[in-house]
Amino acid sequence: MTPLEIGIYAIFALLVLIAIGLPIGIGMLSVSFAGVALIRNDTVATRMMAQVANDSLEEYLFAVVPLFVLMGLLVTVSGVGRDTFDVFQRLMRRVSAGLGMATVFANAVFASITGISIASATVFSRIAVPEMRRHGYTSRFATGVVAGSSVLGMLIPPSLLMIVYAVLAEQSVGRMFLAGIGPGLLLSAVFCVTILLLAYARPSFVFEAEDKAGEDAPIGLSELLRKALPILSLMVLVLGGLYGGFLNPTEAGAAGAFGALVIALMRRSLDRKTFWGLLVETGQITVSVLFLILAATFFSRMLALSGVPRELSELFLAGGIGPYGFLLLYLLLIIALGCLIDSISIMLIVLPIALPIAQAAGFDMIWFGVLTVIAVEVGLLTPPFGLSVYTIKSAMNDPDLGIGEIFRGAVPFILAMLVCIALIILFPPIATWLARL
């Protein structure tokens, strides 16, 4: 067999292994080793695997992963998410479907210090959904809003997916973080417009009954400031330090983790057992992410050795579909894969093949990364996988709430995300202007 044929068979073999349930990291390492061994020999494959393990994980940058993960977990247990929702609930109380928009804004702010969509889905399914149900909103709309707005956690920096993309595409993590701000704000605005349109055009989708909960007791200015201060302090500490040039991404993660620890201790929400559990969970998430990056790096080098990316570049770019035809197919493929596998796995499988083609097409790699992250996040809402949907179902623990009901509630927000993708394609500076300053 030629190296090109071996590379193509390796891709199909990986898909088969994933389909039968083999962990993606193990599958990528196995396929990559076998591919290099067939193209060259076993000795080269063994040496390449050792070299990849050293090259892909020795970077100081990777310390940012456990730091941001730990910060997000500490913020989750400290009750900051509930306070953030309370603040926006108070500010949006007189707007039609205001609780829905309060959830979006609270998720956007919460996302700026967590970076993990599933954390947002878990927190706000327990906070926002019961509150919306109490005020007469349908369970379909309430859970759909939480599922839709939870995707902001992976777009608004700091973002775990942005870090993974930056590593695979050899881009600056700081620039990727900056690039996520404009699209994150745009997506938040599109979500709010979607909620308003639903409230006026499809009130039966949003409201189940008249609000019988009455006006909640007003929150005084001092109480409002007390609830807002922790989240604002962390945002200033992490994002201000990062974008002001005082801290690099790793230092910003360390500062944020320490700040979140101080908040959790001051609120007495952290005992020794809980803290140890958070450290263990941080380690598990970090190791799994770094192992997947190692496997993806080996897979990428095997493909480069086989010549598959080069041949695909010529096929897409010299053929009739052109660069934007390739982009459309790429985004459709990612959204389709989102129906079956998780976000990081999609990026690790597709990017080693797609990045060389995108570079050959002359695309801005920061812009391409933002589009990739949003398209990947659509998969959190689409059946049958829909990880955010299943997270909400699990967190709610309500036997009367069906999975199908949550998926139907998320449909308008899937459409809103597609609109956002189209706007960023038409107006690339939305994603690039801050990153290029």
From TrEMBL:
Residues 12-429 form the TRAP C4-dicarboxylate transport system permease DctM subunit domain. The chain crosses the membrane at residues 6-39, 60-81, 101-129, 141-165, 177-200, 228-246, 252-270, 282-304, 324-354, 366-390, 410-435. GO terms for molecular function: transmembrane transporter activity. It is a multi-pass membrane protein. The keyword Transport applies. InterPro entries: DctM, TRAP_DctM. One of its GO terms (cellular component) is plasma membrane. Part of the tripartite ATP-independent periplasmic (TRAP) transport system. This is TRAP transporter large permease protein.
